[in-house]
Amino acid sequence: MLHFIYNPNAGINIAARKANILKKLYAVPNSKVWETTKPMEATYFTKKAIEENASRIIAVGGDGTVNEVASVLTETTIPLGIIPIGSGNGLARHLNIPLQFEAALDKTINGHEIGIDVGLLNNKMFFCTAGIGFDAKVAQLFAKSSQRGFFNYVKATLHALTMYKPIEISINHGPMQKVYSLTFANASQFGNNAYISPFSDLQDAYLEMVKITPIHFLNAGLLVMQLFSKKIHQSNKVNIQSIKSITINYKEKEPLHLDGEALLTDNAIIEISIDPLALLVIV
Questions:
Q1: In whole angstroms, what is the distance from residue 77 CA to residue 74 CA?
Q2: pLDDT score recorded for residue 150
Q3: What is each CA distance from 186 to 18, 21, 126, 130, 171, in whole angstroms?
Q4: What does the alpha-carbon distance between residue 225 and residue 77 come to, in Å, rounded to a whole number?
Q5: What is the pLDDT of residues 27-43, one digit of tens each?
Q6: In contact, 244 and 205? CB cutoff 8 Å
Q7: How many other C-beta atoms are found inside a 10 Å radius of the C-beta of residue 37?
Q8: Residue 270 half-sphere exposure, CB side, CA atoms within 13 Å?
Q9: How far does Cα 97 stand from its chain's mean position?
Q10: Which residue, 123, 127, 171, 194, shows the most beta carbons closer than 10 Å to its own?
Q11: Tell me: the pLDDT tens digits for 261-275?
Q12: Domains of the chain, start order
């Protein structure tokens, strides 16, 4: 049986859209629909679906919903399906999963399975990207917004540009250094075709560490253009290094994001590693 884990708060918050999605999900034969009402409920529903011997579990939401569901499925041989309806949909875009609802639904039913790598940040899983610095600050501001969607993500980005200051870190216990942002990429993009690591491969057993050195916010426009044109690696402000594990010394209670979801660091030491081919995904 297929189990759909649906987050009605993902993406554009329109009642008619939610009703239409639920109608289409309930029309799928031999399936069950779980509808979340609060954070982390997708994790609980995924565990319940496993108890009910689900054959496939499909996350219907954004990258945050995908993270909650996938984090449970790495312990199983049950494949993850994705129907992307979020603001960024980074993992779905990397995997070429259709953004059109009906096409993505068909893919979850009729697609084939592949294994993908899983990133770990202090043993918390991420499947697309994780990071500290500027992108984490944007995630924090976006999380405080009452509205979702790409336009509001742009607003959060512009707000962050006017107030953000570089952070100070140490890599593998080396000297302290200032960076604008530090991203760990399993997939190639944040979402919305913002390619932070254009050559990342979900099946190569490596993460890419993308370090951006401090820049003035007035010069950030060029970097943004390179981000969306898959050319950020050409910037002299950007260094990309393939890693299997690394240790970052930072601070506690500072902005952090996992797959775009805003968190705070719970330790001054951040341990990054990778678990190769630990998740089955339907593509």
A1: 8
A2: 64
A3: 31, 29, 8, 9, 19
A4: 40
A5: 999 999 999 999 899 99
A6: yes
A7: 8
A8: 29
A9: 15
A10: 127
A11: 889 898 899 999 999
A12: 2-111 (3.40.50.10330), 124-276 (2.60.200.40)
